[in-house]
């Protein structure tokens, strides 16, 4: 049976991994990834459109207008991007976050298993937790970079506006990343905490082994021969 210290440490690591899983699910499901204000105009009127959206859904509303008013519209992000390079990158962001969610689930499962068992030094032990957290960090960082590339370089919000409001031209756009995007930093912190807990466990186990060796190392030679 695992020692009390091991149970407590791996239980703590399980909780941080579970928290990371919950946060990744929230990141995928919420619509507060970015808010964009885009000035638009046509031959009859001008308007400022506010887009607030996540990876799957979003809403478009009119903030200021002169002339023809535009109704609030709800839209599916993926369907609006079909047939473009933005769709490919956006789909990769979703895929990487799903993989990150699976890595967090695996890490939580391994930590929970280690609280009730003493597995051999295989992927079921600390090495498996390290690997799952490393992949999780990798997928989260890739998701953040790819989404920022789609926003800043490929003008994701402008592309969405052009699909939703056709026959309009845009003049300028400003963007602000929402809490859903920045929650990915929290996932990185939780993964770091999980890894730190496992490192602390291995350090504690190493110190115990060293202490167990000392009586033999300093025992009298004649006593050892006897």
From TrEMBL:
Record field: transmembrane: 89-113, 134-153, 179-201
One protein family per Pfam: Clarin-2
Topology in the lipid bilayer: Multi-pass membrane protein
GO cellular component, one term: membrane
InterPro entries, per the entry: Clarin
Keyword terms, alphabetized: Membrane, Transmembrane, Transmembrane helix
Main location: membrane
Keyword Transmembrane in annotation: yes
Localization terms from the record: Membrane
GO biological process per UniProt: sensory perception of sound
Keyword Membrane: yes
Sequence similarity: Belongs to the clarin family.
Protein name per UniProt: Clarin 3
UniProt gene name: CLRN3
